Amino acid sequence: MSKVKTEKEISEAQAGFNHRTAIEEAARCLLCHDAPCSESCPAGTDPANFIRSIRFRNAKGAAEIVRENNVLGGTCARVCPYDRLCEEACSRCGIDRPIQIGKLQRYALDQEKSLKMKILKAPAKKEKEQIACIGAGPASLACAAELAKLGYRVTVFEKNSKAGGVLSYGIADVRLPQKVVDQDLSSVKGLGVRFEYGKEIGTKITVKDLLTKKGFSAVFIGAGLWGTKKPDIKGADLKNVLSSTQFLRDVRENKGYDKMKGKNVVIIGGGDVAIDSAIAAKLAGANQAMIWYRRSLEESPADMKEILFAVEAGVSIMTNYAPKQFIGKTKLDFVEFTGRDKKSSAKVAADFAILATGQSPTDFSKFGDLKLNEKGLIEKDTMGVTSEPGIFAAGDATGGDHTVVESVRDGKLAAYGIIEYLKKKKEEV
User: In the chain, what are the helix, strand and coil shares in percent, each to the nearest 5?
Assistant: First the structure.
C-alpha cells in the first residue's frame, strides 16, 4: 500500500508551470481564428490571447490580458471547471488533448506576482454616482471592479472580517491558498474600491437606507448561500454531524482543525464541496475520510481532477449509497446507508459526519420587497435587474450554488446593467 501524501507533498504535486513548461504548452496552441476556448469562457478571460502572449514569451502581456478581463483570474485558474468549459472547447481535442488552459492562466498571474506588476489602477476621473455592493464574494467583487474601472465610486459592505466570501471561507486552503485570494483582492482594492467589514446590510442598515439616506445611487446584492440543506433523516441533529460550510470555515480560520486527528470522518455528498471537506479532514489527520455519494461517480458534479486529487490524499469514495440515519445517543457513533438498488445497506462507524449536500439561501426578503422564486432566490434578468428599481443582484443569491467563473460573468453583466440604469436616470432629469 502506498504511503498517504502529506499536505506539503500534495501541494508540490499540484505545482504550476515554470517558464519552460509554460512556453512548451502554449506552443501546442493552434492559434485559432475566433478561438472556441475564448468563446467558452463565461467570464470573458480570453484564453486565446493570453496563451498567444505566453507562446511568444510575453509573460507580462499574458498577465495583463487575464487581469484586465477577469479580476479574479488567479482564483479561477485554480477552481474553475475549465475541463468542462474552455479546455473542452479547445480545438486540440480533435488531435490529441486540450491545452492546459487553467495552468497557463495560473502561470500568467504567478508572473504578475513575481514581477510585482500593478495592472489595474483607479482612473483619475471619478463619476459622481456611488454604488453599494452587499457581500464581498465573487459576484460582488467582479461587479465592483467593473464599475470602479469606469470611474464609479464603489463601497463593498461585508459582514465578516475579511473579503472573498466562499473563496476565503468555503474552499480548502490546499486547493485555493489564501495568498491567491489576497492577490486577487489587492487588484480590486487597487481600483479604489472601498471595503467596510462587520457591516451586515438588512439588519440595522437596510437597502432602503443605502438608497435614501447614505447617498448611493444603486445597490448590488451579491450575498452567498451559507445555510446547509440537512437531509430529513433521523439523527441529523446529533453532536458531530457538521455542515460543510461551517467545517470548511473553521478549517480556514484554524478553529478546532485538530479535532479530526485519528478520527473516522464520513462526508455525505458528491460535489466539489464534499471533495474539499474530505481533503481537509484527511490533511487534519483523520484516520479515515470517506465520501459516500448517492449516485455514481460519473454522475458526480465534482471535477474528475479533484476526485483524483482526493484519492491521492488518501480519501476513499463509496458511490450509490444514500444516508438512511445517523446513529448515536447524544453524539454520532454510526451512519447507516441504503443502496441505490434498494437491496444493499451499510453501517459505518463514524466519529464525525460532514454534510456537503448543498447550500440553502439566507432570508433574502431582508433586503426589501424583492421578487423571490420558489427556492427563495432573488429573481433578476440577464443584466442583474431585480423587481425593485435601483437594486441589482447576481451570483449565488440569484442562481444558487454558482461556480466562481459564472459569478464573475454575472457580476460583470450586472455592472453594465447598473451603468445603463444610471444613464437612463440622468436622461429623465
Answer: 40, 15, 40
